[in-house]
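S1.2 Input.
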Amino acid sequence: MDTVYIMENGSYLRREGMALKVIKEGREIDHIPAVGLKKLILAGYVSLSGSVLDFLIKNRVETVFMTPTGRFRARLAIDEHRHVSLRSAQYLKLSDQQFALKTAMGIVSGKIANMIRLLMLRSRTYADDALQVGAARLKALGKNVSASQNLDVLRGYEGAATRIYFSAFHRLVLNEAFRFQGRNRRPPLDPVNAMLSFVYTLLTNEVLSAIKAVGLDPYMGSLHEVSYGRPSLACDLVEEYRCFLGDRFVLGLVNRKAVKPDDFIQREPAPAEFVDEAEMKSKRPVEMKPAVSRTFVAAYEQMMARRVHYPPLGKEVAYRWMIMNQVRRFGEYLESPDREYTPFVWEK
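S1.3 Output.
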């Protein structure tokens, strides 16, 4: 058991020997042995004691804290990686505006290529010409990416491509019980957007874990500006997986009717803003019920164990291993002048 998710609001963790117990309302609802535990993800309002914190540190368990809606809050970092030369190369290269622009261009091009791929495939499957039109618009816009004169212009193209893609996204939702009227977040206003935000957070955590394992600094990126507390590099490198893994995952759950509207608590009208986390908990527009949250995470873990053809190795690898390899290749790109970084583009 490498990764464990705890998603019970109002629960707390208690240590007992070489294991953790999840307690809610005075009752034990789960028992987590330390053997094999590498990552603990606490989604929602879960408490832990100093004894549990000491347990996690001593056993080197990476611990991630998320809000009930799936937004990243904090991470328990055991120590910093000792790969000084790699981080030095990262700071030096990504501080160079031209190198950062070239890097970000590749990231955006890969993201657009994957969006085009999904729209084209579904256009043929669904016999929907409107999806093909959306793909054509993305292709036309994508030609401008390599001509971007600076990062601000490139970010504008990336934003425009995302808007084109999501303007066609509702045509990919075949379950009439769900409606998609555009991408929204912070907070998401409907079940589809809630699931998209949640899976994007899970994927960003996958990339963040790989970044730290390789020895890079997650806060120094190129496409996303450096901002206090934001893991900009993780936000950069997750872009190539949003469509290929995240969007396809959510569409699969919706279109196969693995989830239904009754699995969500929806509040109307949706508040425009929240005073604090407590108010968000009680008034957020939409949230998954606990049972479907657990189903969602279980399905996500099954997806990450699936295999895909990975061209750099010439063989099939699990999605999680693919992400790790991509981050390693990014590190090699920073250290070696003759290397190029190629985002994963979905081919087969």
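S1.4 Remarks. The mean pLDDT is 85.
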